[in-house]
Write a structure and sequence with these properties.
- The chain is of the alpha+beta class and 281 residues long.
- The chain is built from 13 helices and six strands.
- The strands form two sheets. The chain has a four-stranded antiparallel β-sheet with strand order 1-2-3-4. The chain has a two-stranded antiparallel ribbon with strand order 5-6.
- Strand 5 and strand 6 form a beta hairpin.
- Helix 4 packs across helix 13, helix 5 packs antiparallel against helix 10 and helix 9 packs across helix 10.
- It is globular and about 55 Å long.
- The model has no long low-confidence stretch (mean pLDDT 95).
- The structure holds a DNA duplex (13 and 12 nucleotides).
Length: 281
DNA sequence: AGCCAGGCCCTCC
DNA sequence: GGAGGGCCTGGC
C-alpha cells in the first residue's frame, strides 16, 4: 500500500498531511471520513489509525473499505500490464490504490473541478464543509462533516458563489436540491451497472462524461470507468498515439481506453493520470 | 496585463 | 455532430 500517493493523487480533497517536514512515506494524514476526524499513516505491514472523534475500532473496517484494501491489486496490475508506459507508471507508484469515497461528496467535488485545480478544489470543498457542514469536535483544530445534500441545497446558489465557487455554483445548487429530494439515489448506483450509472449522472446539470466517470470510479465501484481529463488526454496522445488518424472526441478516447485496458481500466487511468500529471507542463 | 486552469453547456453550422 | 465561445475566480 502506497498511502501518500493514494491520498495525494487527486481523487479526494479533504486530506491534509500533518507536519510537512517528515518524509511523505511516514507522514500522518488527517481527513474527515464517515463524519469522523481520522488520522492515518502507513506503517510496516499496515495502516496505523488515530481517531480524534469516534472509536477507532468502529472506523477501522470502514477505512479498510474506503482504502479498497480488499482489491486484489497484484491481479489488477497484472491485468492492465499491457505496455511499457503503463508498466512504468505502475512501477513508479507501486501500491497506489483507488479510493471508495462517499458518492455525494465525490459528485460535489468533481462538479467543482471544472476549469480548476486540486488546490482550489480542496479549498472550495473545505469552505463548503466549514460553512454548511456539522462541526466535529476536535479541540482547537476544528473540522466539519461534509454538508448533506439538504444543507447545500438550503445554502443556495448565491451563498455558494460567495464562497468563491464561481459558475460551478449554478450546477451545485440544483444538483443538491435533486439529491435532497430523492430524485436521484446516488448510493443505488453502486448496484446499477456502469452504463446506467453513467446515464443517470450525466443527466445532472454540470455533470458530463468526465465528471460522471470520476464519480463512478472513485465512489461507485465502477472500476472500468475511465475519466478523460487534460492529463489523461496527454498521456493517451503521447504514449498511445490515440489521435493519430482522426481527432477522437473525449468520449471516443474513453471508449478506446476501456476497450484496451478492460474491466480494470480505472486503475490504469489512475496510474496514467498521476504519472503524467507529476511530469508537469 | 493577459492568459489559462482536472469541464460543461449552448449556439450555430 | 462538432467547432467555438462563455462562464467565476485565482495564480502566474
Amino acid at each position: 500500500m502506497d498511502l501518500p500517493n493514494t491520498i495525494k493523487s487527486g481523487q479526494a480533497f479533504r486530506w491534509r498531511q500533518d507536519g510537512k517536514e517528515t518524509e511523505a512515506a511516514e507522514a500522518w494524514f488527517s481527513g474527515v471520513v464517515f463524519d469522523s476526524i481520522v488520522t492515518i499513516r502507513h506503517v510496516r505491514g499496515g495502516i496505523e489509525i488515530r481517531c480524534a472523534t469516534g472509536e477507532a475500532e468502529e472506523v477501522a473496517p470502514l477505512l479498510r473499505d474506503y482504502l479498497r484494501l480488499n482489491d486484489p491489486l497484484d491481479d489488477i496490475c497484472r491485468s492492465i500490464d499491457l505496455d511499457e508506459h503503463i508498466r512504468s507508471a505502475m512501477t513508479r507508484y507501486s501500491g497506489m490504490r483507488l479510493l471508495r469515497q462517499d458518492p455525494w461528496e465525490c459528485l460535489v467535488s468533481f462538479i467543482c473541478s471544472a476549469t480548476s485545480n486540486i488546490r482550489r478544489i480542496s479549498g472550495n470543498v473545505e469552505e463548503m464543509a466549514s460553512h454548511f457542514g456539522r462541526r466535529l469536535a476536535n479541540g482547537g483544530d476544528a473540522r466539519h462533516a461534509f454538508p448533506r445534500p439538504g444543507e447545500l441545497a438550503e445554502a443556495g446558489e448565491q451563498r455558494l458563489r460567495d464562497l468563491g465557487l464561481g459558475f460551478r455554483a449554478k450546477y451545485l445548487a440544483p444538483v443538491a436540491r435533486m439529491v435532497a429530494d430523492g430524485e436521484v439515489d446516488l448510493f443505488a448506483l453502486r448496484e446499477a451497472d456502469y452504463s446506467d450509472g453513467l446515464e443517470t449522472l450525466t443527466s445532472l446539470p454540470g455533470v458530463g462524461d468526465k465528471v460522471a466517470n470520476c464519480v463512478l470510479l472513485f465512489s461507485l465501484d465502477k472500476l472500468e470507468a475511465f475519466p478523460v481529463d487534460v492529463w489523461v488526454r496527454r498521456a493517451l496522445q503521447e504514449w498511445y498515439d490515440v489521435d493519430r488518424k482522426k481527432k477522437l472526441s473525449d468520449v471516443d478516447q474513453r471508449r478506446w481506453a476501456q476497450d484496451y485496458f478492460g474491466s480494470y481500466a480505472g486503475y490504469a487511468n489512475q496510474y496514467l493520470f498521476h504519472s503524467r500529471r507529476l511530469m508537469g507542463r
